[in-house]
Amino acid sequence: MGRRLGTELLKLRTAAGLTQPQAANALSASTAKVAKMEGGWVPVRDPDIRALCELYGVHDPATVGGLLELAKVDRERRKAKGWWDDYPLPGIMQEYMALESAATTIKAWQPAFVPGLLQTPEYVRALRESPAAQVAKGTVPDEEFIETRLTRRQRLVGDPALAFQVVIYEAVLRNFPGGAATARGQLEDLTKTADLPNVSLRVFPFTSGTHSGLNGSFNILSFAAPGAMDVVYVEGPFAQRWLEGGDAAASYDELFERITERSLDERESVSFLHKLRKDL
């Protein structure tokens, strides 16, 4: 909500032909504060929204009211305490947990690892011990990190349960950290999870060729709140970024649909998982 509010304020300022220093002057604040407001990094007070709307020449009650409602919801979200606050997770993961807990639907593409929501404790432990994870391991103790993974999984069986659509690249299922022992348990768990009515699990096989999604993983989070924009979380080896609404988010949704169309269907994917486990 904060990012959407910031985007709307930025659009209004740009449309009015004004600069951040001019907006800051109207609020008797610093330019840095306006930049943080437009970036969705800080909560926004109602008096500031009204002052900016007056400056930007925005007098439509519906527009102003919508901005005030967005600001209210964002402030409430920031004050809410979730289970993730009890763990020493990096800031960006704290933010992701908050959004994941509020999402009604998540579409996930993963070309490198089993998605976090589906990882078994053994997989998590083996992954954190592998060289590939060292750059992102951070300071969170292994057992606490594993506990956060297990807590996250409750979203798949809670009430209401998260609608989870996931596509996993075949390479993920053939390159398990920890070897065959980890693979057997994780593959069995994936087949069981795929039976959940709220989970759609598909495999993108090698035979389907390449696509631009192989550059990295991404999650598309959707929310029940009226007018809420989809949020896309894009993850790379050394950096993560967020996209909220607009053409950029829509392009990821289109990419996910293209990936899904070229993947095995749900029944074929489960059969694929069974065969892999049998061949170990």
Distinctive features:
12 helices, six-stranded mixed sheet, alpha/beta, elongated, 51% helix, Endonuclease, Chain A, 434 Repressor (Amino-terminal Domain), 2 domains, 280 residues, 6 strands
Describe this structure in words.
With 280 residues, the protein is α/β, with parallel strands linked by helices. Helices cover 51% and strands 12% of the residues. The chain is built from 12 helices and 6 strands. Strands 3-2-1-4-5-6 form a 6-stranded mixed β-sheet, sandwiched between helices. Helix 2 crosses helix 3. The longest helix has 19 residues, at 61-79.
What does this entry show, briefly?
By secondary structure, the protein is an alpha/beta fold. It has twelve helices and six strands. The protein has two domains: 2-79, lambda repressor-like DNA-binding domains (434 Repressor (Amino-terminal Domain)); 83-279, 2-Layer Sandwich (Endonuclease, Chain A).
